[in-house]
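Homework help board

Subject: predicted structure for assignment chain

Our instructor gave us this sequence and asked us to write out the predicted structure in token form, then describe one feature. I got the tokens but I'm not sure how to describe them. Can anyone check?
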Amino acid sequence: CEPQALPESLQGKALYPCVTFKNVSLHVHFGPYAHAQLPFKCRTLQEAAKEDVVVRSYPKPADGKHEVMFPVMLPDEGTFDWVDWYIQRNPQYTELSERTIVDWATRSGLWRPKSNSYKSSLDKPDMNFGIPHLDDGSVKQVLQLAATVQQRDFVVMEIKSNLLKQD
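My token output:
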């Protein structure tokens, strides 16, 4: 398809790569060069001028090490209210939890029916999206692996697992 001009409402604003598809696997390349010759001229993200991009950065820790917090709290005692409050005041932290996966998926347009299961909670919500990799926990495992190479601070919100030594 032919390149298209940006809508007027987006011109002059900071843009970021956003690729959204449902139920497909997609390979995205943000490297310095295109994998193949393109029939039109465009710049890659790596070639963008500094004044054309906004890079979100957080202060680096003094010792060069990032933190991972495993809060130990009692269930149904305001745990998730606390993490919302904490992250609001400490935006350099990113929450890793099944709750944030559900939030991300629903904000991405995925639908899931309301759960009436007594097993469902904020700590361990029923995924129930009908997408095997979300429902079986594979996405959670990939996010946890990806977090190990990110230069960020994390809060791991697993109420039950954070209480148990073996988990």
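Reply (TA_rk): Your tokens look well-formed. For the description, you could write something like this. The two ends are 50 Å apart (CA to CA). That's the kind of observation they're looking for.
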